[in-house]
Every structure is written in structure tokens, then in C-alpha cells.
Model the fold of this input.
Amino acid sequence: MPEWGRIALRSLLAVVVLCGVYLGLAWWTGRQVPSQVVVEGVSIGGLGPEEAVERLTRELADTAKAPIRVDLADTGTSIALEPSSAGLSIDIPGTLDGLVGFTLDPTKIWGHLSGRVERPVRVVVDEPRLTAALTEKARAVETPVAEGGISLAAGKVVTTPARPGVALSVSDAVRKVSQGWPRVPSVTADVTTTQPTVSQARLDEAVRTFATPAMSGPITIVVGERSATLTPDQFSGAITMAADSAGAIAPVFDKEALTGAVVAATSGMITPAKDARIILEGGNPVVQPSVDGVGVDTAQAADLLIGAMVSPTRKITLPSVLTKATFTTEAAQALGVKQIVATFDSAFPANADRTVNLTTAANTINGTLIKPGEVFSLNGVLGERTAAKGYREAGMILNGRLVQATGGGVSQISTVVYNLAWFAGVELTQHQAHSFYISRYPAGREATVNWPTIDNKWTNTTPYGILVQMWVSGGQVHGRLWSTKLYDVEAVAGPRTNPRPGKVITDTQPGCVPQNSLVAGFDITVKRVIRQGGAVLKTESYTTKYDSENKIVCAAR
Done:
């Protein structure tokens, strides 16, 4: 073999050997982590993949579990996140990607043998979970915006400070935690700030320029030669401090309430007007004249009071004014109360308690004036009959039986009232007859009353006033109506029909009240004929159906 052939063969063998050695070296290095690899401070150089995973898992276990703190910038507050519950984890197998494996690249082989590699651990971030965890934690430390305010309750100035609202910027916190964990123990995240509608400076200005001066002391109200004072607690309830859309705060005044406060403060300066009265004097109706009063003109009171709240003098002056009576002398005279237009008297049996009730009711009704168009209501005038008003227990009819009740017997007053209205020719608005006939009353022309279910009403349909006169004397209830006579009224009673005999009932119940009469029930129609100037103006018919009155015998059981 020529010399050049031997040289070529030796060279070929050398190349084959070198390639074998290179391939062996590549295979060997591909099975190990590079000799100087450091992951998050943990050296894993020269280890096999399984050994490297085991070492990193062990050495980084505490780091993977350690909470990360999120500071809210410039607030001094923070929150802490548990990595596992916040969607944060480390991927150790992924961290080793590219560090092991067969390669013929000489630079990578050389790096395996000699280069130092600093590699961060690979982080897996579940962003929706991290966002949710940060949002929930942030709620506990966020500061809601506090709107400031000024209260003037009870005349005292009380200020509620304004405070901005501060909340974590969750998106910024997600970004910084994702970038920093687990290499840093904490991150500082941005916050969002919400300013109150009214700044503290605006509140302070309103307190200085209005609230404090307004509540600083009483305001003097001068009317002529007299004066009164109005203290802050008496008018502060009519003032509200409110903010507008521009963030300015100013007083809002309830002018009606301010005027009311002035009226109350000056009430001692008022001499009320007195209405005219129509009374019976010496047996005739007499007009007691009305008397003008003196009042305070409060038309401008609210505006003047508002100005005085911030005035150094703290004083307002109001004019006095004459006040007219509601019912003047002229109005009373025009009612034409001058003569008797109806009269009716009703006798009653002797009974001390019943007589007291009749007298009490008659005295209450006496002097009642019914103006044109007004309605007289017996229950309205008397009210509930009570012992406190002087009424006593006496007999009354209830469900067809006599019972004892406070105010018993007042139906006799009702019958007198009804007959007065009948003969005056006014409208008989509401009435109800007794359930059975009582002989001392005119049949079909009487009325009972009971509180509050049964009333006796009539309406003054004349153009004149009607004055009621009533008194008790000589065993009778006497009634008169005074007005201007318009009508002549007649009562025409028809026959008693449909008789219904009574019966005898023996009652063994406690509280039984005996009834000695045995009176048949019947029907009767009574006509009211109203004439004016001799001509018949109206004819009305009223039919009454009386139950029989039974005889009640009370017996012991």
C-alpha cells in the first residue's frame, strides 16, 4: 500500500475514533443537567433529570407555599395571598425543559461541560382565579368614599368629615403578582381613588361662612314696642345643608317652617280677634259684636330671618297688623235671628238620674247656632255621653228592651230637636224612631239617639241663621228655634194600622229591667205640610212601624 494510502487510512481511523468519542460525549452530556445550573438559588448541575426534579421540588417547597403580600400604594394597608388558593403554582418539569436531551451542537455540549446557567423556575398562573382571589381580599381593606355633611340639629353644628374612597387596582395587582411570584415576597399595586362629592375644604367653608354664624345665638324679633327671641334650636330644623352637582354645599330653607317658628315666638304679642256671637239675653236674641285683634305680619318673616342668621345684629323687625274676626258683627246681624220660628215642649216622668241627663244635654245644646247650609247633628253637639260630662245611668231602649246605660233618657231631647226641625220647615236629614211606641211622644213624630250609631240630623235650608234654645223646667224639656219666619208647618197624623199585640215575657237573666206596659205595635203615617204665604209649598209623608212593647217580668232562677 502506498504511503499516501496508509496516511489516509490512519486519518480516517482517527476521524472515526474522534466521532465515536464525540458521539459518546454528546450522549453522556444529554443525560445530565449542565454542570453549573442554578434554579432560584438551588444548584442542580450535573444531576440527572429525576434527581434535578426531586431536588428542586424539595428545596422550593417552602417558596411555593409562602404567601405573597400585596401592598396598596400609599395607604399602609396590604393583603396576603395563599399561592395555592390564588391559582399560583410552579412547574418544575417545565423548568428543566431544554436542559437535558441529546444534541450534536458543540456549543450546547460545551455549555453542559463548562457554562453556568441561572434559570428562573417556571410559574403557572391561573389568571381568573388570581383575579377572583385579589378581588375578594381587596374588599376587606378598601375604604368606601365618605360624603361629608353638616347637621344643624337642635341648634348645634355637627360636621361629618369627607373622606376619599380607596380601592385596589386588581388588574395592576394581577400583573405584578404574576411577574414577581415566587421571587419576591411582596409587590406594591396601584390603587384607585374616588373623591367625595363635597370636598373637606368646601365643608369647612360652609361651616365658617354660614353654619357657625347661623347657630351662634338667638335672633331678636321686634314688633312695635315689644320683642321676642328665637333660639337656634327653634329654627334649625327648617334648615338643611345640601350639596349641588358642582360639589358646593349650601343651606336649603323650609320657609313655611321658618315662618311657623316666628309665629310661635310672637304668639304672646297677638291679641286674637273675637267672633261675634248671637245669644239670648232678656228673652231675646242679641248680637254680641265681634272685636278686631292685633296680629303680626309674617309675610316677609322667613326671608328676614334668613338674613339675620348671618347678620351681626341678629335682629328682625316685623310690622303689626289688625286682624278681622271670622264671624263679624255684620255677618251675625245679617243672619236674621230675631223671632221664634218653632217651639216644642215635651213632658217626662219624674226620675232624678234621668232628669240630670236631660238637663246636661239641654244645657249643651242651648245656644247652638246653625248657619245657612249647615247641618245640625245631635251626636255631633253632645258627643259621647260619659260620666265625666255629668251623665248618669238611667233607662234606655236597646234591642226592644229597657236597659240601664250612662246618658239614658237623652232620646227625649232628640224628640224635642226633631219636632223643632219639623215645625221650622227645614230638611229632616237623618232620624230614627224608637223601636216601640212611647205614649208621651207624638206617634210617628219622634226620634231616638244613640252614640255613635244612631244620630238625629237636620239641615238649615233657609237663608237665615237658626239659634237653638233649650232648657229643662217644670218636668218638661222646652225647645225653641229663633230665626226669621218663612213657613207655616202642620202635622197631619193618619190612623194607626196593622196592630201587633204584645206578650208577657218572664226573664231570669241577671240585670233584668221590668217593663210594666203591654202596648200593641202599629203602623202610622204622618204628613208634614209646609205653607208659605198661605200656599202649600211642600207635603212630605213619614211612615213609622212600631214593634209591640212586651211586658217583662223579672224572676229569680
About this structure: Confidence is low (pLDDT under 50) at residues 15-32, 101-105, 107-115. The radius of gyration is 54 Å. The chain is about 30% helix and 30% strand. The CA atoms of residues 508 and 556 lie 5 Å apart.
